[in-house]
Specification:
Helix content: 25-40%
Shape: globular
CATH superfamily of the largest domain: Fructose-1,6-Bisphosphatase, subunit A, domain 1
Number of domains: 2
CATH architecture of the largest domain: 2-Layer Sandwich
Order of helices and strands: HHHEEHEEEEHEEEEEHEHEEHEEEH
Structural class: alpha+beta
């Protein structure tokens, strides 16, 4: 098991992501270097996708617009979705670190070809979150999650991918926006953010030891769905909008519609992001394995909370590869307040 930690005294702004990964490895006596190697492979794929995202407008026919196909969720697949998914698969399947992969874009588990070595880890990913915003230049991102395989040997299985989130050993996301930012954490480490320097091509430590504020002043939710919310959900939003100087209300509303972007702001500034269940999506909309578990792992390492309205996200045992769940994630006091209002719905059932 590779659990990494890095002392505050040793962190320096300007440290590269590659150096940081290697430093954490050398400071853990049980580390074999395999998790570090896998993270570096993800880093390479992120650089490639970042370059394509930043120049997509100049390659409109190749990278912008629809492919004419739909993914497993019935959503129109964007060209850049497909490109990002293929990039991650082609780089990671040859790494020797993975037994199997799961992607939001693929119906079933992605096996490692027999021509490549099968490894000890499994990876779940949303290769390009927020793809509906691609054509209008809004920040989008990649989300990834790493586990140790539970199968003993040979090809990885579906069981390897259906693990509860608390078994993650690493998770992260890459935000492609005004700058490209790589945020990650490991089981024994803190949450760190690295910003890509376009001149050197290196991710440099820019956000060491991220800690989310205990309480924020921003809420993030798609209020276009408000007519189909539960009573408790509506009452909580009305509470956040009400004026009360003692509790710092009203909160400000901010919603990008790209989960990575909304989460990144919440992580740095505090507050709460919500994608609740409603009449149209009784099981929620976000995917447990590809989106909710990795972000829940990150936010808890940063001192925050994540639940489905009543249950900790990381304790949910998935039963299907593309399982959905409601999500409340962010500052601990804000998530706890949401729980109190949602508890009224449970009482009235």
């Amino acid at each position: 098991m590779e659990d990494f930690a890095m002392s505050n005294s040793d962190r320096q702004i300007g440290l590269t992501l590659t150096q940081h990964i290697r430093f954490e490895q050398t400071n853990h006596r049980m580390a074999t270097g395999k998790l570090s190697g896998l993270l570096n492979e993800i880093l390479v794929a992120a650089k490639i996708i970042s370059q394509e995202v930043n120049t997509a407008g100049l390659k409109a026919e190749l990278l912008l617009g629809m492919t004419g196909t739909v993914n497993v969720h019935g959503e129109d697949r964007q060209k850049l979705d497909e490109y990002s998914n293929n990039t991650f698969i082609h780089i990671l399947e040859r790494s020797g670190y993975l037994a199997v992969m799961g992607s939001e874009e693929n119906d079933s588990p992605i096996p490692i070809p027999e021509t490549y070595k099968s490894g000890k880890y499994v990876l779940l990913m949303d290769p390009l979150d927020g793809s509906s915003n691609i054509d209008v230049g809004v920040s989008i991102g990649t989300i990834f999650s790493i586990y140790e395989r539970v199968s003993q040997s040979g090809a990885g299985t579906l069981k390897d991918l259906l693990q509860p989130g608390h078994r993650q050993i690493a998770a992260g996301y890459i935000l492609y926006g005004s700058s490209t930012i790589f945020v990650y954490t490991t089981r024994g480490g803190d949450v760190h953010g690295f910003t890509l320097d376009p001149h050197t091509g290196e991710f440099l430590l820019s956000h060491p030891n991220i800690v989310i504020p205990k309480k924020g002043t921003i809420y993030s939710i798609n209020e276009g769905n408000s007519n189909s919310w539960s009573r408790g959900q509506r009452k909580y939003i009305n509470y956040l909008k009400a004026s009360d100087q003692n509790t710092g209300r009203p909160y400000k509303s901010r919603y990008v519609g790209s989960f990575v972007s909304d989460f990144h702001r919440t992580l740095l500034k505090g507050g709460i992001f919500m994608y609740p269940s409603d009449q149209k999506s009784p099981n929620g909309k976000l995917r447990l394995g590809y989106e909710c578990n990795p972000m829940a792992f990150i936010v808890e390492k940063a001192g925050g909370k994540a639940n489905n309205g009543s249950r900790r996200i990381l304790d949910i045992i998935p039963t299907t590869l593309h399982e959905r769940t409601p999500l409340y994630i962010g500052s601990p006091e804000d998530v706890e307040m949401a729980e109190k209002y949602l508890a009224e719905d449970a009482k009235n059932r």
